[in-house]
Amino acid sequence: MVDHKRKRGRKPKIPVSETLELDQNHTPTIPGSVPGPSSSPTANSDDVVFSVSNVELIDPHHHHHHHNHSQSSNHERRRRGRPPKKTKLPSSEPSKAIRAASPTRLLLDKANNGPTASLISSSMVAAGESVAAAARVVPAMDAVVKVFCVHTEPNFSLPWQRKRQYSSSSSGFVISGRRILTNAHSVEHYTQVKLKKRGSDTKYVATVLAIGTECDIAMLTVEDDEFWEGVSPVEFGDLPALQDAVTVVGYPIGGDTISVTSGVVSRIEILSYVHGSTELLGLQIDAAINSGNSGGPAFNEKGNCVGIAFQSLKHEDVENIGYVIPTPVILHFIKDYEKNGAYTGFPILGVEWQKMENPDLRLSMGMKPDQKGVRIRRIDPTAPESDLLKPSDIILSFDGVDIANDGTVPFRHGERIGFSYLVSQKYTGDSAAIKVLRNSETIKFNIKLASHRRLIPAHNKGKPPSYYIIAGFVFTTVSVPYLRSEYGKDYEYEAPVKLLDKLLHEMPKSPDEQIVVVSQVLVADINIGYEDIVNTQVLAFNGKPVKNLKNLASMVESCNDEFLQFDLEYQQIVVLQTKGAKAATLDILTTHCIPSAMSDDLKI
Fold first, then answer.
1. 125-to-4, 97, 115, 136 alpha-carbon distances in Å
2. Alpha carbon distance 285, 174 (integer Å)
3. Which residue ranges are recorded for the region named Disordered (predicted)?
4. Dihedral sign, Cα of residue 364, residue 368, residue 372, residue 373
5. Which of 272, 309, 343, 412 could form a disulfide linkage to 210, CB 3.0–4.6 angstroms apart?
6. Mean pLDDT computed over 22-31
7. Measured in whole angstroms, how far is the alpha carbon of residue 500 from the centre of its chain?
8. Among this protein's residues, is 185 annotated catalytic?
9. Residue 307's beta-bridge partner residues?
10. pLDDT in tens, 405-418
């Protein structure tokens, strides 16, 4: 950092408040290049001076300050340490401002043995505290590792093979018990994972212990004892408040060494997690999260981890929106793994509900003016609560917490959050007390919670896709990765309407139900005229409904009728002679270099 020497010796020609702004952002700028907010260093700037020597100086090792001028000129702020003098300071005032802000820059140079202590005057309690904090946060940085992963994704469109392998790098950090946390999407479909510590030249091979796709967290460990020498694990902190400073540490693109970005907590709410397509608690921060930052920790001012960076909003109208997985979700994942020896997921109440904001609607349901709640629209038939709850029940409270008419519950001081937060705090297999209003009567239920299964799963839990081939017809099951493979990332617009409707609205009728489609027809003499069938659902085979792919495969394999008849959607049918179809399959497999007519999971 080039600028200390210039700033220490010279009397600044620019207004004081401006100097402070530059210090806080740590950007070497040309004097006078930034218009200062106050044009004369008078009574107003003595206010600014004190706001800097207040404890509100955010711990400097964080390379950041989330101060803005509205805060610094706000007279109602809480002051700690020495009360401000109301008299105007003598002419030494500007240099004092610089002195107050200098440790901010010098602390970062601790490694170069910069003259930190000599600059701290006895009255500067704030900077004194921040020195201690700086010393405390240095080990936390060393706990951040770079994760190298080689991925081999299944090819969902050609399910008998995999795609070409590719490698990625992301971040992770060490937690207690010789474990490392990173993002699930950093290690999905992994074939090899390696870790590199900061300041080390060795990559250590890691073992994946658990992958939590819904919450986008994965847990790794390293066998080699050498890796654990001199590493102190990260401590977790509490859920931060709005406007708390956070620092994201990781290894993003743009260089090989560790990188630190910083910002404040902008929002805390239920977010949609892109990777697991679920909705869980999340933090929104304004620090830059770039690719490669994934899996890196977000620290608070005390150097405790308050979250894991995992996604950012890329949109033409948006700047600097990064998302962080907060500690409640991380600790849920860790406890779940410790309790069950594996990741079991987050429970979901298997119901769809509607808001009860309309007064006439509430009246017709027999709700009293003081009662609030949400109305159940549909219930997932495979969920345990389907035995107890009924459509048009009004859910009044969950575990003793009253639910408002818009489906929110109180959260911390004066905030509100969707009630699914209460459900996701539980573990699968836990029971919860639910109070409902049915026919104007209040009924209490104890419901056992389970994780939700979708008809079209959002991910295949790392398993290769299932397929079955007969006479060139490739049957497979529909999942979100399959739709993405067939229709690209805009599959929500490109895929057939029937499949999208099932993806968004359909509920499974039985726990093992799957949507089976003819993915494509490998052209051969036997299937002339059927070449154009693609991604069309199979509803029945020889008059029997098709529940799932295994069910279809076993029916076809054991069929001794003269014809095989597949009923597809829109009343289309495919008819083949049984003997000829089974005989032709082998040649078609050979032509297309396909090793087997069905995937391994169907052979059992």
1. 22, 15, 18, 17
2. 22
3. 1-46, 62-109
4. negative
5. 343
6. 38
7. 24
8. yes
9. 298, 326
10. 999 999 988 889 99
